[in-house]
Amino acid sequence: MFPAFLIRTAIDWVRQNESYLGLSPKERCEQAVKTCHNLWEEEFGLVDKHLVEPSVISAYWAEVFHSSESPDGEDEWKEGILKRSSQYDSFVEWQEWFKQNNSSVYKDDLIWNGLIASAWAHTHQYDVMLVADSWEFVPATSYLPINEIWRFEPHMAAVTELMYEIWQEEKQAYAEIGFEIGEAKFDYLGKFECLGFDTKKYFAIWPAKAKRDKEIVAIGEIVADIIFPTSDDWYRALDNVIFAHDSLDVTSLLTRAQYVFGSKRRLMELTAESGIEQAIRQAKAEGWLVTSEEENASSILSEDLGIDSADIAAKV
């Protein structure tokens, strides 16, 4: 078990527990924090409250605002708070309105402030996390519904082990073409769909000939896209080939993972040799995957500088 699984499933247990149905959304969040605290002690030992509680709270409110199945009475409350938060372009103004209009119950604590931040984030296409005692907003990514987690749970151990084995092979493959892969731990418990790969920051140190600064490689998001690609409704779901009929096709998983990881590696290798735009053209010609994010980054670079990034590489 890894932390994100414990948090998401504990939250679901609280939200489905009949004994908590009469509680308010905030009171259920309090129960989720208590439940995760107890389970954490059983599974991992001592609880780091400064790390665990914000993670539980932000995950809880994300589940509330994304869930299509809510406890009785929650839908009307959720609709009201989201409608109001959507009217404020400024988070500070929204925060002040909420505090003033709920002054009889509001307390300056993580649960209330997490609610305020999460509601505004949801209606303005952000995700939210607590960093250094401050709620920070980052561009929203596709959400993984809890029912997909339960579908995946029987295969979780096997898939996670296989993905780590593939990543070890990838690091060796990067080294063979002149890259060095570094990693650094930071205080983040991650999203479930990343299978623990987002609890570290991975970065690539380019070969000397590339004359480029080291680059963060979002391995967690790559893993998520392999296992839980984004569907047409913007939510993530299990890959329907790898997990056809809820069974695990190991060969399909291995083939898909090696292709996606290999595509990233080949694009970086070509970029080191000839610049990003030429690298994208060559990678496509060779049949590798080039993501829309990679193409957009290339377009922005060209627009900002007015020249092909291959020329940049040649002139540095």
Helicity range of the residues?
Answer: 55-70%
Q: Measured on Cα atoms, how large is the radius of gyration?
A: 22 Å
Strand content: 5-15%
Unreliably modeled segments = 300-316
Distance between the termini: 47 Å
Mean pLDDT: 90
Structure annotation, total helices: 13
In total, the number of strands is 5
The succession of helices and strands, N to C, reads: HHHHHHEEHHEEEHHHHH
The largest sheet is: 3 strands, antiparallel
Largest sheet: spatial strand order? 3-4-5
Shape: globular
What's the structural domain tally?
2
Structural class: mainly alpha
What does this 3D model show about the protein?
The protein is mainly alpha-helical and 316 residues long. It has two domains: 3-139, no CATH class; 146-315, no CATH class. It has helices at 3-16, 25-43, 49-66, 74-85, 91-101, 110-123, 146-152, 156-176, 219-227, 250-274, 276-285, 292-305, 309-315, and strands at 126-131, 134-139, 180-185, 200-205, 215-217. It is globular, with a radius of gyration of 22 Å. 32% of the residues are buried.
